[in-house]
Amino acid sequence: MFGDLFEEDYSSVSNYQYGKEKKLKTKALEPPAPREFTNLSGIRNQGGTCYLNSLLQTLHFTPEFREALFSLGPEELGSFEDKDKPDAKVRIIPLQLQRLFAQLLLLDQDAASTEDLTDSFGWTSNEEMRQHDVQELNRILFSALETSLVGTSGHDLINRLYHGTVVNQVVCKECKNVSEKQEDFLDLTVAVKNVSGLEDALWTMYVEEEVFDCDNLYHCGTCDRLVKATKSAKLRKLPPFLTVSLLRFNFDFVKHERYKETSCYTFPVRINLKPFCEQSDSDDLEYVYDLFSVIIHKGGCYGGHYHVYIKDVDHLGNWQFQAEKSKPDVNLKDLQNEEEIDDDPLVILKAILLQEENNVIPVDQLGQKLLKKIGTSWNKKYRKQCGPLRKFLQLHSQIFLLSSDESTVSLLKNGSLQAESDFQRNDQHISKTLTSESPGLNDRPSCSHWFDINDSKVQPIKEKDIERQFQGKESAYMLFYRKSQLQRPPEARANPRYGIPRHLLNEMDAANIELQTKRAEWDSTNNNLELRLHLGPHYHFFNGALHPIVSQAESVWDLTFDKRKTLGDLRQSMFQLLEFWEGDMVLSVAKFVPAGLHVYQMLDGDDLTLCELEIADGEDLFVWNGVEVGGIPIPTGSDCEPLLLHVLHLATSSEGERCPRLVESPHVFPSNAEVGAVLTALAVPVGVLFISATDPAGEENWVAIPEEDLKKTFREQGLRNQSSVLVQDSSDDNSSLLTQGRWFTGMNEMSWLQVQNLCEFESEEKQVKISATVNTVIFSDALTSCFLFVAENSCLRPIDRNGKLLCPVPDSYTVKEAELKMGSSLGLCPGKAPTSSQLFLFFTVGSDVQPGTEMEIIVEETMSVRDVSNFTFSGVGRGDTWHLRKMDWCYEAGEPLCEEDATLRELMICSGDTLLLIEGKLPPPGFLKVPVWWYQPRWHTGHWKSHPDQMHGAPSPGGVWRAASTQGAPGDPHGEVSLLYLGDLEISEDATVAELKSQAMTLSSSERVVPSPAFLRAWTVEGRRPGRLLRVNRQGSFTHHAPPCLPRTSHSVFRCSPQDVVLRTQMRLPGQRAYAPCVDLVWDTGRGWTAGSLRQRVAHFCSLPVEKIEIAKYFPEKFEWLPISSWNQHLTKRKKKKKQDNLQGAPYYLKDGDTIGIKNMLVEDDDDFSTARDDLGKETQKQLALGKKRYSLHVQNSDLFSSTKTSGRPRAPEASLSIHVGSFR
């Protein structure tokens, strides 16, 4: 069934490969095609209705059912005109079936539509796309018809034609009492598993007896005890039409899955059911049934396709026409020897050529027609013994004549006459044979006409073809038999109008007239060709192609011409239009290529029509003298088609030297030129050419062309338009050239975008890849071509690597304008994208932004901050004691939006920005609200209040915020960093550090007595630790993002100059893996940031000889110490002289607040600076990293396992089938 799921008829569009000035021409909607040679109509598939089509065709080719339905008139069923009236009882399903059967019989179209019928069933588009079981449909449709026909003369239609009875009997072996139970059936369900065929299954069901004995005795009501007995079943009443359903689908209780039984299961064309019925005196002919329909299922138990083999009882179709016209190859010799025809390719090829006009055909089309005739390709059937097709034609030159370029083949005159006489002789024999067989055709199954009806396609078949449906994935699923005694009236034979009521005859006649009118109009409209005439005098030839001298508009004439007229008529019209033309006029087919206009072939044969010349709509024709343009000979043909190549090479300076810069220049070469012409064009005497190629891994690399291949042509080398060629001179640097070349060629590639359907449309794909270039308009050009249905209120949103949906892409944006990278993922989401005057913003409450907690709003960019604040406040239920901040690039709360009357555009708020809703009123203009923290080692204790936000951290009891890793004294619990919140200060933006300290003194409690601000230093808080030192002589050095912390010192703090660096030094405790509390050290870097200068300052600070100390910087995030030695010197490659190290650079990156460990080598002689706490921290980090790795492997294995288990096509949930019928009781 899925084979035709999405087949739709689209209006054809004429498209141009090149030439942006050409317009697309959409043809008018083509009316339905007339019936084909079989003169039978198929039924169009609505997407998943092949099971319905097969059953409807079976009912249609059941004449007794069809005519009984036609016998019900409008007085019983009602009419379509009254169906919308509330009190009218219109039996819509029988009416729609009548109309459908009338269309199948009389309407001249290749396929009818069931849309009106399925609408009467109450089905939606989803139902029409969903697969169902035809056996289930058979029962449900009959039930719906019985309900619809209640109270009419056809109330017993189903019962009269399809109803039968089975009697089950149990015979007591003691008293011979017979207990029986009768059951009704509309179809017989027979087993397929472990059964050879239909007769074998019926024998098991209705002949063999089941014996009750031993432990399985039967309780006889007459004997009133358990006795031996036999149980059997018989057919008591047989219907005129017997339906047999084959149980091909079973359940495997070991694998716990369904499967299809594909073993061989035979069934006869004629069957005698008397052995399976109760004994009676009826004539044996009463039990004889003929097969007239076989519904076939192709596929598995979770999906597939249905079609039907049907016997044409009334001879409505043209089966004989197929035997004569469509398969002449089978009858080219004697019909008694038809099996030998397929083995004689000479006769078949001659017959195909005889049917062609002038007995000429392209060789490629000859192979295609051979495949269509015999159902097998030349290579598969004849190549082994006869060789290739062209070679076979050459070997039989006495019969076939190949053109000079071997593109076409024709029959020689003597071969044509001989083949034609053979064909006529065989044709007369066919007619005689069919005529002799026709009198007994209706009575003998062997002479019956069978058709394969596959949705819209109808093909005649032979009766022996039914045997191919005995087994396999494509096999019989339902069988329909009719009593052989049922005789059709002579007037019904080959008469499709028989039995159809007058009102339907009139309706079909009017519909046929309308169809003929539409086809005539369409034929007239579509016989005109739009030709584009390029006038030779208006063109000149340069750079390998033709180009207009002035403009394209002045060089091209548009002409509308009837394609049924000849080339001579077109040439005559051109002479009349171009009065100035002198000399010969040659018309040639031309095409636009990237290099310009190229002439391919000259049109010859003035007596041939444009249709016979295969001139397409919108064709470009070049009008010239056939020799030259502007005095220059013009190369023509596909062999010399100009190729536009992108040649990459190193640039040349004005002095003629090579520059380390790769440039690209377009060059045009004929396709039949040698590849080495590229070197000649660039004046490179010796060099290597590289072409771009893709390796098995999908990576694009440059591949060198061997020197011997430089003699090959561009076409032989596989180069096409827009291909890139890299030229390397013998003096070029290989590595840099290839690196630049590879980067450059990736600029114009077409790649793809991945779109996930997040709108949850059941009928759509969940995820697709769409091809795109940088100029593709994503929403209109690419998206609508991949999804059948795009919601009106939907938009595309990029998805970042964390799965977050970003700002929607405007509908009119290209890939380049949307700044999307190829390979990006996008989500098709509900909701419209913002317009050019709107902004798409995220906002959240609080500064601790968690993934997935952001909310989304679309606002006008002219809205003020106050309006946006009110909008967001009302949305989250907050009061006016909150304010808005913009999230900065490091995902932290940025500066507050203080200017409430300013618009979002003035504040440079862009789509995709995140606004944070922060508690607290904004300070007055010119002031900052700064949280102040107290820094002290752990040995100090005290109670402090906690800050409401706590700077994203979790404070310890008492308002203490302890860092995750120690910095004051790593490895020593007594030296751990603690930041205690003091409170918020409203301070002027221009305030100095001294003023900050003075105001911070007012926040200190009595437990934190500080003599004066001179005993405080101010640091910024960065990463939950003291960061940058705030110099006393600076203003405005603190913000909300970097609030100050105030460590107390034991002495008055002197002013720090810009060259001073404050470091925290810790002395190593002798004999222990621990350190003393930290002490601040001020180091003057005026003499340089060298290790020697720092070591001297530390030695002087500790009163130790400089050669008796070792120092190291601590990296708390790694739990590592890096020793600082005065011998850290390195040599530069070029100047070859020593350069003193700078501790500001790698690997130390020394700055204010860093921790320096000091070892006294007078009492210790080892180089180890680490502590036990460092070992514990490293082990913890190692375990965390190992855990992440294991988790990643677990996720990958889980995905692999789940994908292995669920490989294959996802199965849609099964849904019950139903037909909605009104009440007519």
TrEMBL record:
Catalytic activity: Thiol-dependent hydrolysis of ester, thioester, amide, peptide and isopeptide bonds formed by the C-terminal Gly of ubiquitin (a 76-residue protein attached to proteins as an intracellular targeting signal)
Residue ranges of domain USP in the record: 41-484
GO biological process: protein deubiquitination; proteolysis
Keywords: Hydrolase, Protease, Thiol protease, Ubl conjugation pathway
Highest taxon in the source lineage: Eukaryota
Gene Ontology terms: cellular component: cytosol; nucleus
MF annotations from Gene Ontology: cysteine-type deubiquitinase activity
InterPro entries, per the entry: Papain-like_cys_pep_sf, Peptidase_C19, Peptidase_C19_UCH, UBL_USP40, USP, USP_CS
EC number: 3.4.19.12
Chain intervals for the UniProt region annotation (Disordered): 946-968, 1201-1225
Entry similarity comment: Belongs to the peptidase C19 family.
Name of this chain's protein: Ubiquitin carboxyl-terminal hydrolase 40
